[in-house]
Amino acid sequence: EWNKNVAARLKSFPGMNNLGLIESNGHQNYKNWKKMMSYHPQNTGSWVKAKNGVYHLGGDFYENSGGIFDRSLHYENMFVKK
Question: Is residue 39 assigned to a domain?
Fold first, then answer.
């Protein structure tokens, strides 16, 4: 989501019909991508998955920055003293 936040705020590439570009290949690089996505605090957001190769970043994405500042219990629990 960090990359989407940066790319969403850059000018679109010339000739791309007002579309920005972002490389997103987590599903290709990580064996447990689906499990990792479950850690995302807003993993059901409309912007999380590409549709026909395009991430649709509507008002809900911009209102909460794609959830990048939300708490994630998975990551918080990594730092709990045992």
Answer: yes
